Here is the input.
Amino acid sequence: MYINIINSIVILFNQMTLFEVIALFFLACFFWYMVFRFGKLKIDQVIDGDTVKINGHNCRLVGIDAPEAKQKYGYESTQYLKKLVEGKWCTVEFIGYCKWGRNLIVIKRWGDVNAKMVKSGHAISYMSDKYKKYQKSEKDIRFTNPAKFRLKK
Here is the structure.
């Protein structure tokens, strides 16, 4: 059976032009890239307000900083993120690695979860010049409802 499939593939490639083979290769690479960069993954555990565990790997939500679970407001921040994503299938965008080797990710589930953490006042915008995507959300919440924004830099 497998030999028939391989023979069919060889015949198909023999009938294709070089341009079609190259186009097919790039299309396959793009598909592979999209699956791994924007894959749906189940969030196994929320560790604190900006760290989750996916398939045994600690992943940090890029662009935000939330208090550790045992710090002031840490419990509320952790519980809010748990309510949003723990045990749920989410679109996860891989951005890179932090200096401690954790994956930097953006979680999307009915919108950008990283931004929701900042807009709700459970996290602050954080990162170097590379990733300042959530600073507008932080400024908006500080201006519209400063009492809701409890965290300090």
